Task: structure prediction
Amino acid sequence: MADAAGIVLAGGRSSRMGSPKAALEWHGSTLLRRVAGIVARGVDGPVVVVRAPGQGLPALPDGIEVVEDAREGRGPLQGLAAGLAAVCDTAPVAYASSTDVPLLHPRFVRRVVAAVGDDVDVALPHVGGFPQPLAAAYRTSLVDIVERLIAEDRMRPAFLFEACRVRRLDHAALLADPALAALDPELESVLNLNERGDYEAARGRPAPEVTVQRFGALRRLGDGTRGPAVIRAATLGEAAAASGLTLDEHIVAALNGDQITRDPEAPLASGDTVAFLAADAGG
Result:
């Protein structure tokens, strides 16, 4: 059994945004593709995306399961129930995220998940003066309580928190993790996009700073730089382009020394290192 799974809720109506958030463009990818990929990097177990009944979704990477809400428009507890039910047999804890947090960092996910100890059912961040139920970690065994609350039409997350053991994580508690303090000191991981102006402002921000290096035959390509270079890139495809490379069957990338991929939409986060190699040498 894995230590933790991931749940991404994509079934919101996006009424204030004016168009489905899940499909909004993000550096050549989509919000949903980015958030699902970042959550997957923060957990060691499966990731499920919860959609409304019949809702269309943008493309997702292999291995991410899609499940449906039992009913549309009933709020986050309905989606949480579907997600917890889907992963309760594979992990004891699940990180739950909305789909509109493109600045989420994998280290934030890991920090919150790690706060679910033996005497804790929910690790609930409090950032900006508000609880963040869609940036929280839940014991998957809570699915029965969540379903009971739904049956009683008690749909607010606060009712769930009254019924279980909650560890509340304020700004100081979250940033007690030195890696998170270095990588996301403003806790922008919880910055969600409700309106079109929010999205445009976030989309206009600089991409994350990452370190890239070419190895083997690829060192002779691009701009001639042989050592590591710090660039800004939100996806593997952007990092390749900035390095003078085109991702194809001849090139693979090692993300942070282990994950091997050539997916151009694979999301990057601040502090990442990307090593590009010829496929016959490292793929």
